């Protein structure tokens, strides 16, 4: 085969791999953002169900009271779970901290600082 053809094929494959790598990361980030939005916006779950299940008006009317009564309890469960998880992680980090060197301790502090910003 001709060198130009081989280089073109290799170049195309490399470009495809690079694009795929960045695209998959972006898609994953979008999924995570969507899930976070679902947790922080009570009405979002209802809208997603309506859209994904392709509910007609009659079904929406029948299902809405059920969702409206259940969503507040889900919000409370998430809140309680978040508080419990935060306490458990704090204990874990407090036990880990004495085993780390100063550089690792600073990194742990940065990680915890970033986590607290994201989970307010």
Characterization of the model:
- It is a single chain.
- The chain has 120 residues and is mostly helical.
- It has 2 domains: 40 residues; 66 residues, no CATH class.
- Helix content is 88%, strand content 0%.
- It contains 4 helices and no strands.
- Helix 1 crosses helix 2 and helix 2 packs across helix 3.
Write the layout of secondary structure elements.
Elements: H1 3-40, H2 42-52, H3 57-96, H4 102-118
Helix pairs in contact: 1-2, 2-3
Give short descriptive properties of this protein.
mainly alpha, 4 helices, 88% helix
Task: Summarize this entry quickly.
This protein is mostly helical and 120 residues long.
Q: List segments where confidence is low: pLDDT < 50 over at least 5 consecutive residues.
A: none
Question: How much strand content do the residues show?
Answer: under 5%
Order of helices and strands: HHHH
- Rg computed from alpha carbons, rounded to a whole number of angstroms: 24 Å
Secondary structure class reads mainly alpha
